[in-house]
Design a protein that fits this description.
Elements lengths: L2 H14 L2 H13 L4 H7 L1 H4 L4 H17 L7 H14 L6 H12 L6 H14 L7 H15 L6 H9 L5 H17 L6 H9 L18 H12 L6 H14 L2 H25 L1 H13 L4 H20 L14 H13 L7 H11 L4 H20 L7 H17 L1 H7 L6 H14 L6 H13 L6 H16 L3 H4 L2 H14 L1 H7 L1 H6 L11 H17 L3 H18 L12 H24 L8 H4 L1 H14 L9 H18 L2 H17 L27 H5 L1 H9 L12 H14 L4 H17 L5 H16 L6 H19 L5 H11 L7 H10 L20 H16 L7 H15 L3 H4 L3 H11 L5 H17 L5 H4 L1 H12 L7 H17 L2 H4 L3 H11 L5 H15 L4
Helix pairs in contact: 1-2, 1-3, 2-5, 5-7, 6-7, 6-8, 7-9, 9-11, 10-12, 11-13, 14-15, 15-16, 15-17, 16-17, 17-19, 18-19, 18-20, 19-20, 19-21, 20-21, 20-23, 21-23, 21-24, 23-24, 24-27, 25-27, 27-28, 30-32, 31-32, 32-35, 35-38, 38-40, 39-40, 40-42, 41-42, 42-43, 42-44, 44-46, 45-46, 46-48, ...
Subcellular location: Nucleus
GO biological process, one term: iron-sulfur cluster assembly
Pfam families: MMS19_C, MMS19_N
């Protein structure tokens, strides 16, 4: 390429500044068609021009080319020439910035030698005035320095310290701190320690708070960590740093004290034992203030950690000193003496901080640990045995708990010190003190806390001792004394800790008496005390029986208890006894469900086996009841037992393998559709020979049909591709849907049917296209769209339509919008228009707690967003103009239903358009709809900016919501509560000048809400009125 071409490109760039010319020049140099020398020659007149703009442009073009040019194209001679050129240009104020841009790539070249390093450093320190540059230009200087730090250390530090002084931008400080640390570690800074100290420690402590719209995302924590890495980068800082730390600590605010104390703990090991000993007493005197007079628990915890670091730093360096724990002197001995003096009065407020300090010494060094344990435990046990201190035993046990807890926390360290036997020498006395403490109401709580710590210590107690502990805990659980009885939850915590590793002891020691507390028949209505004891026992069992061996016992005992409750010879004659019996059974089933839920969430491996051990017994129990037909199975409360039992079935079946699910659903198929008891025959006994179990028959009794919910619960948990073998999939879904629409006798049964359809459709969509087609051709045309049919029948079909569409929307299936489009067609129908509108919105809520990932449903990402973006325009099109027609009102219902069904992240970007329509929705007669709208408005107000739609419509919103907050003809408790919560949110979300004219009116009107007949409403009214009273400019 000719020189003329390069000159032409240069002239064009000088005139236009386009990137294309830069790219072409670089391409020519890389390909060999031109050379860097050609570019310099072409730029000659511009580099030396007397016009500032041309001179600046010339240097800038050269720097841009260097930045993107490969290092191989720049030899050593070229590097030397370019460095000389750029350092000279630093003297020219107009070319400082483009020169810095050029030096950045040059300093990173392998051909950049020591001579160039010296010249560059000298030029930077002599000619660049940092305080006159903006942030981006100063950043270039830091990048150059970062490259130079490892290349040339002579003459660097003096110039560096004066050069970097006064930097404030957090982006530059992060880079500066990283360089400071490298300098302190890699350089000999002994002659410059004061200069380095001044430029580093002047930033301590960091008080930076990023602006709300900070685009760089630099956090105070990042700056603190970077600065702290400099503060502890050299032991030479010790003598200068400690006095500064103490001054800052004395004058520090709560916000900075934690940082200061934490920094002292990080720096002391680096500063070393000599510095630590020199400042030991001063450090302790300052740090102990944060323990004995703490500003907050966080600072107290950091102060205790720093005390531990201080002692470890002082005493670890003594190594194999002749000092023993008995002859130990210095700060550790003084701290122990001071704390023991305070612990002589355990009832005083300073005793607990003193015991925490003693506990912090444990794990520092072997001798200090031995000294603190011996002195603390000996002292506290002596106090506990002292008859004069009898009244203070609860406080003494609290202090002992703190020491025992510290020993447990430092168990590994104690083993390294060879002190694992130290606690064993006190074990019997400590255990005895805690056990005796459980007998006294005042000390029971502290004693139980101590036992919890002691029993969790690995290998601290033998099995015999654990049995002894369990025996005494049982006495606490059985106590009738009101004060001791209140400690039952703490006692249970001890048992739970023991059960984790020694479940057999709890199984044999505690469970028998708990199960014996559960009667075979429920307590009568007026036996409040007995009923409370039953619920308490069930709650204890739910918390205690999570480990596999205990849960197995729980399942056997509670299912047996259920069978006894519902035994034919145990059925009450009086209808008034039905409810207590059903409530007792529900409590037992709820206990099983609670434990199972914990185990499933924790992925316990023993859960799947209960598809054989628990689930069949549940089916057997309820099917037996349905076939025998006692009167109470028709009670309204009885379906709640079926619901909770169904939850148990779902939890267990979902954990089973695909093969085991296939076998189980095959057994259920035989049972429910052929009446073949099969797997369940041994569980369903003593039935008349003529009794047949076929709940899907139209002639079946209500009790039999209700058991279909148990079948539905198992189907919900099936994995994809697990299907019933006796039916073609489309035929089966059609059969179940038809049964739900034509034969289901109540809502419980209809839900069971539609859940079966929805879950199988979601998991096996590719097999069920004919079923989808039938919905459009039969269910829609023959039921939903027929105005002459009974409204209730059409409403049931619409609910079926809802769940089928939910199953599809989770898959992002295109058929969804065909289904939704049909619903829009009946918005003007006076009978079911609003039902259809609500369904359009509810579809967006997805599978709720039915079609979930845990139940193996198929859920595609962003399904809700896709649905919202498609349906919203159609709704909005119907809402133009004045809302008059039934279809428009239904569209308003659809909009409110849609918004309340979605997370705020989906619709927030549209709120400026949606807000006027939501305000219109507050005039609808439905209390439920208005309540949902106001809940949505509350979420929006909490997330709204100062220019959001809440600000714009605040006055109108206050007026309308205030009316809904007060008792009136068409109202409800949820509506009034939602309105009052929204009114309480507004003062925090809206500028004072916007709502100031409404303040007096709101306060006056809310006074009426204070007299609301419902307590929950009155509570929210107080909160709202308080918020408006405090609302000021």
């Amino acid at each position: 390429m000719s020189m003329e071409a390069t000159e032409r490109l240069v002239r064009t760039w000088i005139a236009t500044g386009r990137d294309e010319e830069v790219s072409q020049i670089i391409s020519d140099i890389e390909s060999g068609r031109s050379a860097l020398l050609n570019l310099v020659k072409a730029l000659g007149e511009y580099l030396t021009s007397e016009e500032d703009v041309l001179r600046q442009k010339g240097v800038d073009l050269l720097s841009q080319v260097l930045e993107k040019c490969s290092p191989a194209k720049i030899n050593k001679q070229a590097t030397r020439v370019l460095v000389t050129f750029y350092t000279g240009k630093l003297e020219d104020p107009e070319t400082v910035i483009p020169s810095l841009k050029g030096l950045v790539p040059l300093t990173a070249l392998p051909t950049f030698s020591g001579a160039e390093t010296v010249d560059t450093i000298k030029a930077l320190f002599s000619h660049v005035k940092m305080k006159g540059l903006n942030q981006s230009s100063r950043y270039l200087v830091f990048k150059i320095l970062d490259s130079l730090v490892a290349r040339h250390r002579d003459e660097f530090i003096t110039g560096y310290t004066s050069f970097i002084d006064g930097e404030k931008d957090p982006r530059n400080l992060l880079l500066a701190f990283s360089m400071d640390r490298v300098i302190c570690i890699e350089f000999d800074i002994s002659e410059h320690i004061e200069e380095m100290f001044n430029i580093i420690f002047c930033y301590f402590p960091i008080t930076f708070r990023p602006p709300a719209d900070d685009p760089y995302g630099i956090t105070p924590e990042e700056l603190r960590a970077a600065l702290r890495s400099c503060l502890n980068s050299s032991p030479l800082f010790g003598q200068l740093a400690i006095p500064l730390f103490l001054d800052k600590l004395l004058a520090g605010s709560p916000a900075t004290k934690k940082d200061i104390v934490e920094t002292i703990g990080v720096c002391l090991p680096v500063y070393g034992p000599v510095v630590a000993r020199n400042f030991a007493k001063k450090l302790w005197n300052f740090i102990k203030l944060e323990v004995f007079q703490p500003v907050n628990p966080e600072i107290e915890a950091e102060a205790l950690k720093t005390t531990q670091v201080l002692i470890r730093t002082i005493y670890e360096s003594k190594g194999t000193s002749d000092e023993t724990s008995e002859t130990l002197s210095g700060l550790a001995k003084e701290i122990c003496d001071e704390c023991l003096e305070l612990m002589k009065e355990p009832e005083k407020s300073q005793a607990i901080p003193a015991s925490k300090v003693m506990a912090s010494l444990i794990g520092t060094t072997a001798n200090v640990t031995k000294l603190s344990i011996n002195q603390a435990i000996t002292h506290l046990l002596g106090l506990y045995r002292d008859p004069d201190e009898l009244i203070h035993r609860p406080q003494i046990l609290t202090l002992l708990c703190i020491i025992v807890s510290a020993i447990d926390a430092e168990r590994v360290t104690l083993e390294q010190f060879g002190l694992q036997g130290l606690l064993l020498s006190y074990k019997d006395d400590v255990l005895g003190a805690f056990i005796s403490g459980t007998k006294n109401p005042g000390s029971c709580e502290a004693a139980l806390e101590g036992l919890k710590k002691l029993t969790k210590m690995q290998d601290a107690l033998s099995e015999e001792e654990l049995v002894y502990v369990v025996h005494n805990i049982n006495e606490v659980l059985q106590a009738e004394d009101g004060e001791i009885e209140s400690a039952s939850d703490d006692a249970l915590g001890v048992l739970i800790g023991i059960a984790e590793n020694h479940s057999k002891i709890v199984d044999e020691g505690t469970l028998p008496f708990l199960f014996s507390s559960l009667p075979e028949s429920p307590a009568s209505r007026d036996a409040n005390k007995s009923r409370t004891k039953i619920w308490t026992t069930l709650r204890w069992l739910a918390q205690l029986c999570v480990p596999a061996p205990l849960f197995e016992t729980l399942v056997v005992r509670l299912t047996t208890k259920l069978e006894l409750i519902f035994a034919p010879n145990n059925i009450p004659d009086d209808e008034n006894d039905y409810e207590p019996r059903l409530a007792y059974a529900h409590g037992i089933l709820r206990t099983l469900y609670s434990v199972l839920e914990l185990k499933v969430n924790a992925n316990h491996a023993d859960v799947p086996k209960y598809i054989d051990r628990l689930v069949p017994r549940i089916y057997g129990l309820f099917i037996s009841q349905a076939l025998r037909g006692p009167q109470y199975v028709l009670a309204e409360f009885y379906t709640r037992l079926l619901d909770i039992s169904g939850h148990i079935v779902t939890l267990v079946v979902r954990t089973a393998s695909l093969e085991r699910q296939e076998k189980f659903i095959s057994d259920l198929e035989l049972l429910y559709f052929e009446g073949n008891l099969g797997l369940f025959s041994s569980l369903i006994k003593d039935l008349p020979s003529e009794v047949v179990f076929k709940p899907f028959e139209s002639s079946s009794s209500l009790a039999l049909k209700n058991t279909i919910s148990l079948f539905s619960s198992a189907v919900l948990a099936l994995r994809p591709k697990v299907l019933l073998k006796s039916f073609e999939p489309n035929e089966f879904l059609d059969k179940i849907q038809t049964w739900g629409l034509d034969n289901a006798a109540n809502e419980h049964q209809r839900k069971a049917a539609i859940y079966i359809v929805a879950t199988l459709l979601n998991k096996n969509r590719d097999l069920l296209s004919p079923f989808i087609t039938k919905q459009l051709e039969a269910v829609w045309k023959e039921i939903i769209s027929v105005p002459d049919l009974p409204t209730e029948q059409r409403q049931h079909a619409i609910q079926s339509w809802l769940w089928i569409t939910k199953a599809l929307v989770l898959l992002n299936d295109p058929a969804v919008f065909t289904f939704v489009g049909h619903l829009f067609e009946i918005f003007s129908d006076p009978s079911v228009g609003w039902d259809a509108a609500k369904v359009v919105g509810h579809i967006a809520s997805g599978g709720e707690d039915i079609l979930t990932k845990t139940n193996h449903s198929v859920i595609k990402i962003l399904y809700a967003q896709k649905y919202f973006r498609t349906v919203l325009p159609k709704i909005m099109a119907n809402l133009s103009g004045v809302i008059q027609s039934p279809a428009q009102k239904a569209s308003l219902v659809a909009l409110t239903s849609l918004i309340s069904s979605l997370p705020k992240t989906v619709y927030m970007s549209e709120m400026s358009t949606l807000m006027p329509h939501l305000i219109r929705g507050l005039d609808l007669p439905s209390c439920e709809i208005r309540s949902n709208i106001i809940d949505t408005l509350t979420v929006v107000a909490s997330s709204d900016g100062i220019h959001g739609p809440t600000q714009e419509h605040a006055t109108t919103l206050v007026s309308i919501v205030l009316k809904n907050a007060l008792p009136q003809e068409i109202t409800s408790v949820p509506l009034r509560i939602a309105s009052l919560k929204y009114l309480a949110t507004l003062p925090k979300a809206v500028r004072y000048d916007v709502l100031h004219p409404n303040k007096n009116l709101v306060i006056r009107e809310l006074e009426r809400a204070l007299d609301d007949p419902k307590r929950a409403v009155r509570k929210e009214a107080v909160n709202a009125r308080t918020a408006w009273f405090l609302y000021k400019g």
